[in-house]
Design a protein that fits this description.
Elements: E1 12-19, H1 21-24, E2 27-28, H2 34-38, E3 43-47, E4 50-53, E5 60-61, H3 64-74, E6 80-86, H4 101-104, H5 115-129, E7 132-140, H6 149-169, E8 177-182, H7 195-201, H8 207-220, E9 224-229
Parallel strand pairs: 1-6, 1-7, 3-6, 7-8, 8-9
Antiparallel strand pairs: 2-5, 3-4
Helix pairs in contact: 6-8
Length: about 240
């Protein structure tokens, strides 16, 4: 059995990817090109307890495929590693460093278990299997917290706890954080003073608070980058990106 990893004397550039359904991935794997379906030894994922070429393992794939390719172009002499842990329809409290079933259940997620433990445990296992340098944290989540005003209002604080927790846990205080934030067509990045307008555009009572917190995360969680998700194609009759 081949063991995948970085060349001697080098480390895998490891990216943590996490979030809910659009991070789980809703793209149809059969539509990928052959190179993406097969993968290669320079862009890896940690799955089934081992490093292996990044490729779709199921009928659907997520943003990790294009992301891994792009990072490989940015770092032509490095091995890129993706550690992804994502669960659809889940609130940010399910990933809280001080996880409790009671808190996770505020968004109905206690039955999914302690996702902070699941995420950090997977990253630790990946680092045990090969020399790694954790270089980025990518987050795509927020829809579940938009459903209620109270979780919406708290979203910024809860997100901060997660990001700072990851930076502390792996001793990377300046770990870059990138998050996607859904924007309806014509909606600006900064929604300050626009609560009524946003509320008119969506039935989700906490949406305004989550979206504004995601915008503010760029400054509050620096180094961070908020990517507005505008005009990304969706499946017909579905909320998910295709």
């Amino acid at each position: 059995n081949r063991v995948y990893g970085p060349p001697r004397g080098k480390k895998i550039k490891l990216f943590i990817l996490s979030g809910q359904s659009n991070m789980v991935g809703q793209g149809a794997s059969y539509q990928l090109d052959d190179a993406a379906k097969k993968g290669n030894d320079r862009v890896l994922m940690f799955e089934q307890g081992k490093w292996q070429p990044l490729r779709p393992l199921r009928k659907n794939f997520g943003p990790e495929i294009a992301f891994g390719r792009r990072m490989a172009r940015a770092w032509p002499d490095e091995t890129i590693g993706i550690v992804k842990q994502a669960v659809g329809g889940t609130g940010v409290l399910a990933w809280n460093p001080r996880w409790t079933a009671e808190q996770a259940d505020r968004t109905g997620d206690a039955r999914k278990g302690n996702l902070w433990k699941a995420l950090t445990g997977k990253v630790r296992d990946a680092c045990r299997e090969a020399d790694c340098e954790i270089v980025g944290f990518v987050w795509l989540q927020g829809g579940k917290d938009m459903q209620k005003v109270d979780t919406g209002r708290e979203y910024g604080d809860n997100l901060k706890e997660l990001v700072q927790g990851i930076r502390r846990e792996f001793d990377v205080p300046e770990l870059p954080f990138v998050l996607g934030s859904y924007r309806a067509k014509g909606m600006p990045d900064d929604l300050s003073e626009m609560a009524e307008k946003v509320k008119a555009l969506t039935p989700r009572k906490g949406a305004y608070y989550v979206l504004q917190a995601q915008y503010e995360a760029e400054k509050k969680l620096a180094p961070a980058n908020m990517v507005p998700l505008v005009d990304i194609e969706k499946h017909p009759k579905d909320v998910h990106f295709n």
